[in-house]
Amino acid sequence: MHFFWKPYKSDVTNFIDELKAKKPTLEAEQRAGRGLLWDREIDRSAQAQFRSARVPQAAYVYYSWDKP
Prior knowledge:
mainly alpha
């Protein structure tokens, strides 16, 4: 092994490290944004109603077999 060996860091990793150094609040902002869109409570009763109201799809949707 070479004495002056350094572990490799990709350009993308360097970019992300620089971005986090310039803007330390970035991760907190990302977590807050995720909370707005993804981290929500699921309404189980509404989901059950959606599933029960679902209409089964025909096997081949581009052609109706009852038409000539």
